[in-house]
Records
---
Amino acid sequence: MANPEPNILVIDGNPDRAAVVERGLVESGWVRVSTIGPSVNLLARIQALAPDVIIIDLENPDRDTLEQMFQVSRVVQRPIAMFVDQSDSQMIHAAIEAGVSAYVVDGLRQDRIKPIVETAITRFNAFDRLRRERDEAQSKLQDRKQVEKAKGLLMKHRGLSEEDAYNLMRRTAMKQNRKLSDIAQSVITAFEMEL
């Protein structure tokens, strides 16, 4: 996260517990803190507030409440620390799968809030970097596959050598100021339309 002073959102239906979390955050130097309770339109409210970090504090969550919170964590790509009083291995697994960065059972104490939030931010940033690197690698692999397929089509239907097919696409990309993969996709589309 680039922002040195993150905007933190606390989601808690219990005002007393929310006050403990908020006090812990403010005493840690984080003053941009908002608090809301769980609600039907929770996702819309979160998106409107656009927090950098989300802290979810649930006393004794039922499955429906947990699923709503997990849905939030899947959709909102932010560091999320979740505090619950009770849990089981299924809930922990579901929380991690949903993207919760820190899942703390029976651990809500004011003095623990700062290190837990810092851990959630660090863990989120590490996984986010890995996700971006994976997506970039997958994109490059897909681009390479398209170029290879387009070369094969040019070789087969135009009688070009592999080098000539590649050079033709590369020159076209340079002339049109486009990416080689875009030209490859155009070649593939053109040949598919002829069939």
---
Amino acid sequence: MMNAATSVREPYTPKEAVERLRHGDLGAWPVVGGLIAIAIVFGSLNEHFLSPENLTNLALQMAATGTISLGIIMVLLLGEIDLSAGSVSGLCAVIMAILSERLHWNPLLAILVALVAGALIGSLHGLMFTRLRMPSFVVTLAGLIGWQGLLLYLLGSGGIINLPFDGFVAKLSDTWLPSWAAWAVTAVLVAVYAASGLIGRRRRIAAELPVTAAWWLATKVGGLAVVLAGAVLVMSADRGVPLLLVIFGTLVVALDLVLRHTTFGRWMYAVGGNVEAARRAGISVTRIRVLAFVLSSVLAAFGGILSASRLSAVNQGSGGSDILLMAIAAAVIGGTSLFGGRGRTYAALLGILVIQSITNGMYLLSVDSSVRYMVTAAVLALAVAIDSLARRGSAT
């Protein structure tokens, strides 16, 4: 039996990547190709689409739903689903608003309590799933309905709580990094990525395991540096890099490091890949599953707070509409497998970028919402089809 700790591999070499492509495992290339196609199509149809102002707005629009999508990925890695993420995001945002505006708590303390509420909700979902053996679909579907009802109850007849535009929460979405800070963050991200790759190589060499070529790692680090530098240059031509994007990017990088370089992360992939094998390897499957649901709800709560920051208010529609569907679609489109055991946190970034780009481009072209939904559905269906083909090719 393969040790569960070896279920997470380092990035593949170019030769191995070609072999994976031959078997139908396309990785993130379809998403990258899709983004290029979206940029070409909408950029040619509307000259404003690729303008610094619009791309900066696109970065702002990504953060809240992308953060919720990060939580969805935690559960999808186990082959489960969380349908309550949208309702949890709205409920926790309402809790934060009530504490900070009606009870006049310190905003930071109100945010902390809202995140704790998210953790408690996730714990409840996890325990219902693991102890009562209820399907995750049913548990979180009940949560979707129940937490939405609690949100409406807490808001009362008013139905809305406004947040002051000059308050701490609203300022999260109206803060822009100065040029020097944006370049400093870029340098830190590139350095962290490079250090992560080097540490991974040294650990694998010490364990006498195959490693990627040094030039391949250098190429990827250089590519990341070019992409980030380009993004900073574009957004600096408008208002600058938004703080919301930095927060979202930090979450993506931090969670990716946790999943790839910690025991907990390796156990997550192991449980998602083969529950029985993980259990026989001595992994506490119940604990991992509960923690996954806790992470999902906490990230949903934080995404709800970021959404409230953009709107400077919470209302009866908070966490509703198509937020949940877009968060799940972003995770799947970005490359997270619905069958468990495969996916990276960068899937949330890539997936939400695809969805928001399509949405943004269609708004600029004044395309009806019905067409936008159909296009998003087609992209989602294509992503799932690619995932299914990759799984079939891997099994073969």
---
Amino acid sequence: MKGSRFWAWLIFAVGTAYFFIPLIATFEFSLRMRRGEYSFDAYRVVFGDPRFQETFAYSVTVAIFTIILGVALVVPTAYWIRLRMPHLRPIVEFATLLPLIIPAIVIVFGYIRMYGSSSPLPFLATARGTDALLVIGYATLALPYMYRAVDTGLRTIDVRTLTEAAQILGAGWITIIARIILPNVLIAVLSGAFLTFAIVIGEFTMASLLNRPAFGPYLQNIGANRAYEPAALAIIAFAITWGCMSVIQILARFAPKSANRPN
């Protein structure tokens, strides 16, 4: 018993060191911009850079639209699958896993071929059209996480009973989804939303190949041309990601437990 506990703590310590030592070293290096002393000059340079502000604001805006699109697609689909077409669940779950298999670069080249300036639908010929395709692409990349978060939330409520009660009171399908189902799975939706936000903020391939001023390409550009600022940006990116993960963990504590009822 004591031996197993020792090995468990040893493995935990090794894993913790493997994760935190490089992070601590990166943070320490980011403080060395001023020769001979530690300072937060690299962070001041990063936060004061107009390109940082522009790219971060752009990625946040794209993330918001991506979350809205993902919720609008996933919540009704997961709800309808659970309520009326449970036999299609394996097919839908397989389809939602495809973005984990298909690389983002394949999706981008498909966009360029189908929506280039010489195609019948030249979305890439305008900035707004390219932004729309980028949002759709990000929603595709986040689909596995958003769908599973929402589907898990739907398992905790009695979908059929809530739907029948709402229909007896005269509610339509849009009202049922917007005012009955969505509020009951809001914690799950928020978890999927924060995962989507973390994906969009750090994504590089799509934004770079579509030539959009996103935060991911900015991180790569700074990393190729500066010394201390990339370390500061890495710490900032980790903080953003950890913040999202922490919020998800906090929200999970308030999520309703599964009722284990057939739907």
---
Amino acid sequence: MKLLIIEDEKSLCDNIFNYFNEEGNICESCNSLTTAIDKLSAYKYDCILLDIGLPDGDGFGVLDYLRENNRNEAVLIISARNSLNDKILGLNTGADDYITKPFHLAELKARVVATYRRKTFNTNNKLIFNEITINLLGRTVSVNDTAIILTRKEYDMLLYFIANKGKVISKNAIAEHMWGDEMDMHDNFDFIYTHIKNLRKKLLDAQCADYIKSIYGIGYKFIAE
């Protein structure tokens, strides 16, 4: 997942960042409402971890921004405020879940995964698209019940394609989603082509239909059949 952590308590922010980053997620962080809005105006995320007590404004402003701009990121509020009114306000304003401090990082991860899975795929632990079955907990993929071995980036890319099936996705959007700020280190998008070529070959070798189509001059499209 691509995560945005909005938290002004540096030690907690660093702990969350490192924990999710070590799990293979792409993490970005900020410590103010202003910076959060700037990041959201430039990038899209899978899930936002939102502290509502920010130094330059109320974190609920992030929820207002998402709603006003028709954004669909999953939002999990992490807050020291444990009053019922704050929880109800957060959930009614657009948050998907609410967890109060202090909390265990393992519980935070479980809530993030459950929220993202529920919001994005509306399913349990398996994502099935025609002959492709993805076990979201085990991070395994099979085609016609035959397992195929994917790298982490190939797995994430397949998941991203299926989540956006039928849509034309630009190379820039793919790079931004898969690599986040690291994309600035690359001079071109050749690295995307390499990952997609390898993913497509593994699917075809497993007798999977050819769903990944190149859209000349723009990017790629996962055909929804």
